[in-house]
Design a protein that fits this description.
Number of helices: 8
Oligomer: single chain
Helix content: over 70%
Order of helices and strands: HHHHHHHH
Largest sheet: none
Amino acid sequence: MASEAELSEFLKNVEKKAFKRAYYHVRDEDAALDILQDSMIKLCNSYGDKPIAELPMLFQRILSNTVLDWFRRQKTRNALFSNLSDFGTDDADGEFDLLEVSSSAADNGTSESAEDWIGRVQTLEHIETAIMNLPARQREAFLLRYWEEMDLAETAAVMGCSEGSVKTHCSRAIQALSKTLATQGIRP
């Protein structure tokens, strides 16, 4: 059984990656935060008594199901109601930081030129845009395998499909990302 401290530490460790994963799916920062919070609450309420080793897989499955629930609610909501903000302009001042830029260069005592920093930020933005443009299943498989660093069996369990399907989705995602990024001049 996971102690309260272990559960808290686990949630701290998965928070950022889980938020990014939710954000990549729903493309809305507020919705991604809500999904993340709901997933964490569901994990604590329903599975807080499970061993700590079981929590990562349980959390990934809960997060996937919560994202799917969000899409179902959106589909219903969009079918029944018109969003008044669709008729206005979008004056959002807050710019979402697409990918956090590590400050490892500053920590190591070396500094980075502004040109290098801007180039790195732009490259990360291109990569994130390319990931967000992948089809949903390819994006989910790619993020679980390479962002969450899950093995093939774990990814298949979270996605609810076969290992062969995960391989296919990942392969297609990598090909699409490679092609898209190559047209933008970004090479591995």
